Amino acid sequence: MTHARFQPRLTGAHLMLPALVAAALSACNVGPDFATPPAPQAAHVTPEPPASPGEGQRFAENRDIPADWWTLFRSKPLDALVRESLDNNPSLQAADAAVRIAYYNAEAQKGGFSPQIFFNSNDSTNLQSNNRSLSTINQVIYNQLYPSPANVLLNAPSVNTQNPPTANYALLLKQFTISYTPDIWGGIARSVESAQARTEQQRWQLEAAHLALTTNVIVAAIQEASIRGQIEATKNIITILRDSLDILRRQYSFGSIAKSDVIAQEAALAQAEQTLPPLEKQLAIQRDLLTALAGRLSFEGAGETFELSSFKLPETVPVTVPSRLVAQRPDIRAAEAALHQSSADVGVAIANRLPNITLSANLGASAFKAAELFTPGTGLYTAAANISQPIIDGMTLLNKQKAAEAALEQADAQYRSTVINAFQNVADSLRALQADAKAVATARKSEDAAKRSLDIVRMQLKYGQVSQIEVLNAQRTYLLASLSLVQAEATRLSDTAALFMALGGGWWNR
After folding, report:
1. Residue 336 domain-assigned?
2. How far apart are CA 188 and CA 474, in angstroms?
3. Rounded-to-10 torsion of CA 97, 99, 101, 104
4. What is the layout of strands, in order, in the sheet containing 356-367?
5. pTM for the whole thing?
6. Distance CA 494, CA 487 (A)
7. What is the residue-wise DSSP string for 9-58?
8. Is residue 235 part of a domain?
9. Strands, E, within 55-146: which ranges?
10. Nearest C-alpha neighbor of 457 from the set 446, 445, 469, 447
11. Residue 230: which of 282, 285, 279, 289 has the closest Cα?
12. Domain housing 243
């Protein structure tokens, strides 16, 4: 026995199908169309053309930045550590995974452009008594296909103890469900646009994380070298203080000086020695930081060690015009992508307030035997069109649209803030390098003068021709001058790295 075909009744909705398809093909996207904000038009990031720092460093306008810009410091240990960090740092790997998450979510949104097709298989077996008539069996089968509480109760088979059930009837139902929502207002297109903008934002955030990690490794290595230089300068002055103390003790033994002079020198030595443990603590913590940045556990250590002498100051530093800076900074590009996403979200919110049309159909066949499936007379299908239009929703959709528009204004303000901060970063770095060159030059002169003064005082001390106050002053001045020179050189190196970061880091050449 085969199941009868059910013919759908043609309604106004069916007659609208061709018009709906045509409307879908000519759909327009509601909401604002995104346009990249114009770049600032200026010749320089500062009011005046930036003057080269001098002291072995100069600015070069429109000079490109290499992808591996850290190699300009000409330090092989630094190059090895940066590359290891880029390969192994888990924070960078997490940012890379975030890009792929956003990408696949955007690809998933594209599924809304295509019809959704599902296969359903609904098989049932009915145990029937011999005394049931064929019409009753047909009624039970109908109830299996189209169940309702009334049909189930009225046509439930009864158990006949005189005639036990001896026949089985299996009903096989196979059908495909097809559903399609034409994107008449571009809501799906805007959703895809928003998801793709989110992917772009994650990509630029990954690039920003790449740049930040590189800079952090460089600055941390320079800081380690600075601490080592300060430790070396402190140990050097401690040696000088000890030599002076030995001289004073001999002079005291001869009765040439008072005991107070010896005690004053001992105090000066103790103070210098007291500054050493904090520096050693800083060095240990700095090593732990480098270890973590390289993606290693603390007990593994950083491997490479750094001295200021192992770094070479990049002689030529690029200066980018403002229009290129906007295109080069990853954080600006990420803010632009966020602005694009907010713009698309406004279109989604508007589309949700407009009528939506859903086309659906069921195609299949039913039979009592597998061999009878898809034979003439066993097919069935239904077709439907559904139009939905929000009428009263408590202003929910309107408020969501207003929230999306406010979010667009917020993203626009955040984009402009990011651009302002980026220009400030570059200007600050240029000013810093100009000041650093002067600071290094002054620190070198100060250290050289303090060293010559201390040498003279030490020579006079041997012959008892100088007071203890002069000795202490000369020693203190030399220690401070030595530390200042180390810090000034390290600051100049760090500020150079900061400028490369502020300019975008050269990712476009990778």
Report:
1. yes
2. 77
3. -130
4. 116-129, 165-180, 356-367, 379-388
5. 0.81
6. 10
7. PP-HHHHTHHHHHHHHHT----SPPP-PPPPP--S-SSSSPPPP--SS-E
8. yes
9. 58-61, 116-129
10. 469
11. 279
12. 74-112+185-312+321-354+389-509
Decide if 403 contacts 20 (C-beta within 8 A).
no
- Residue 253: partners with Cβ closer than 8 Å, 6 or more residues away: none
Record the tokens describing residue 132, joined without a space.
Answer: 């049931």
Written as one string, the DSSP assignment of 245-278 is: HHHHHHHHHTTSS-HHHHHHHHHHHHHHHHTHHH
Residue 132: C-alpha distances to residues 15, 135, 152, 367, 492 (Å):
44, 8, 16, 20, 99
> Residue 452 domain-assigned?
yes
Rounded Cα distance, 96 and 85, in Å: 14
Q: What is the DSSP string of 321-363?
A: -HHHHHHH-HHHHHHHHHHHHHHHHHHHHHHTTS-EEEEEEEE
Q: What type of residue sits at position 471?
A: V
Contact criterion met (CB below 8 Å) for 308 and 221: no
Give the tens place of pLDDT for each residue, 45-69.
888 888 899 988 999 987 899 999 9
Q: Is residue 300 part of a domain?
A: yes
- CATH for 412: 1.20.1600.10
4 burial type by CB count under 10 A (0-12 exposed, 13-18 middle, 19+ buried): exposed
Backbone φ and ψ of 505, nearest 5°: 85, 0
What is the Cα–Cα distance from 227 to 11, expressed in whole angstroms? 84
Count of structural domains, the chain: 1
pLDDT in tens, 152-211: 444 444 444 455 555 566 788 888 899 998 999 999 999 999 999 999 999 999 999 999
